[in-house]
Amino acid sequence: MSSSDALLQALLTLNRLQAQELLAAARAEHAPLEVIERLIRPALEEIGQLWEGGDCALSQIYMSGRICEELLEDLLGEVLADDPPAPENAPPRLAIAVLEDYHLLGKQIVRTVLRAAGYQVHDYGRQDVETLVELVRSDGIEVLLISTLMLPAALRVRALVERLRAVAPNVRVVVGGAPYRFDDQLWREVGADAVGLSAGDILAILERLEVKP
Length: 213
Fold this sequence. Notes:
five-stranded parallel beta sheet
């Protein structure tokens, strides 16, 4: 059994101690972001697929996400500790949110990568379409990052983009998450400007969009 499969079983059985031991063993061999990409992301994506197929309960999705969020605090803290803090006076041009989804983990990982690279970013948490559009418009956001895990949330991006085009047409929308990895054209179908297939992709995307820290 691979480490990712072992983590999947630990999360499905809500075995926090075993999950912690697996992450600690992986951390001994890999950098924090590698641990996320090699173990945590595949395990959570598989749990999302199981739920969509009716093979696990919503409570297992919720609790597995909470366990990973708790265990990730130390890993993400290491990432931030290795880099200088972002300048305090830099106006945030970026915002990140989860759109009508229950998993905040992907958002937290991307936000940490951005902070470690010196970007200031508004964290809007979990929002519905109308609230998010108003936040983006009132804050003058230039690039909005949307993290998703479940397909319904990924499809809701289409409504978000349509509303943004009406009230803030210059805002660029970058999406990421499992549904976009499983369907490589989905990001275009919902009208997004770019897609990130891993947390580390966001820095190259911002460079292409000419958004600097």
